[in-house]
Prior knowledge:
Oligomer: single chain
CATH architecture of the largest domain: Up-down Bundle
Distance between the termini: 53 Å
Largest sheet: 2 strands, antiparallel
Strand content: under 5%
Number of strands: 2
CATH superfamily of the largest domain: GntR ligand-binding domain-like
Strand order of the largest sheet: 1-2
Structural class: mainly alpha
Order of helices and strands: HHHEEHHHHHHH
Shape: elongated
Amino acid sequence: MTLKHKKLLTLSEQIAVQIRTAVINRDLNPGNKLPSEQDLADQFQVSRPTIRDAIKILSASKLIVTKSGAKGGHFVAEINLNDLISDISDYITLSLSLEGMTIDEVIEVRETVEMKACSLAALRRTEEDLKVLKECLPSKEITLSDQLFYEQDFKFHEAIAEATHNRMIIITIKAITLSLTPYFTNMDCPAELKKELIGDLYEIYEAIEQKNSNLVVDRMKHHIHRFSNFINDFTAIT
Length: 238
């Protein structure tokens, strides 16, 4: 029989786990102030440096934030979706740079989530959502630069995510879009293809407006297929 070595946690790590568990169990809520370092040291019967190390572990995982001043101290972090989006995007960007994942893998995930997103958007969209979607549509009359086209295209897809009212979908699509932006801005999009892709977006908008989830999925599939072919052709050339 082979015995596997299991890493033993330090005292600081054990305390960090207990505080993290208290947050997960809602014994501590976002915004709550932790007891002072001395009170925590007394409670856990350890030294203050051990508590400080535990706080550093929790701060590194962004579970705890430290504020200075008379009303300062260590607090349970508030959930900030923009910070979460930025963190996920940074991870994807770094993974792409270090070849921990490929652009094809990222795009496959984006396509999978987009299909569900447009279906939910059609079912859940509000009049305000429609207004935002319409404002994000690229103009058919003005010839857009590649950069401006990609910016408006991404904004439209992010607006679809917002219309789902599903925070996990919003976070995922926005994080992926943010990480892909530098990649796409270096791709020259032919004028005729750009026109066709913009036409796709208008058809997707109309299906969402009609609350037709089946139709919007078909139109999104067509749009994604058209765009994927372009990416594959561009990659093959470069």
